[in-house]
Amino acid sequence: MTDLSWRKSTRSAPEQSCVEVAFSPRRAHIRDSKSPDTDMLIVPTDALTAFLDSIKAAG
Asked: What is the four-CA torsion angle of 6, 11, 17, 21, rounded to 10 degrees?
């Protein structure tokens, strides 16, 4: 999927590897920035939102 707009955390330094995320209409695409051409994790956007909300609530 080359038409995705990938972004990484603003807390990451430009030269550091991290997790990147891109969104399509109903899915979140997640990949390792140091291996962008390997497999990615694709999950429904609402599932990712629920996961992140649970992390925030536990913090």
From this structure: -20
